[in-house]
Amino acid sequence: MTVEPQSLAPAAETRPTLDPKMLDRIRHVRGGGDGFFRDMVELFTSEASSRVRQLGDALDLQDRTAAAEVAHGLRGTSATFGALRLAQLCERIEELGQVGEMPAARELFPLVESELSAVTRELAAQLD
Length: 128
Prior knowledge:
Blueprint: H1 10-13, H2 20-27, H3 33-60, H4 64-81, H5 84-98, H6 102-127
């Protein structure tokens, strides 16, 4: 099964970088307030950056199991934080890793890096 990477990304582009409803939920978890939200943003950006590096390493090594596992974890974290396009891209990389389509998964990786940058910028703006 050969997958064309170009056909995988357009659906992600229709979603916002961050879901404002999810961000509001995080802001109001147990009355967390601004300090809690800031801590959560810092934790997410640090964790997501680390996972993206791990994902890149797994893809470079063509380690399909590690790539699928890291993509799965990043997908869940991203979805919980409202980074829906990032979550969708990770889901697709996870699926590709599971079936061994590593070249297609690797071609999607720059989109993951770019989307994480966009998410990080938007979250930083939320803190100002």
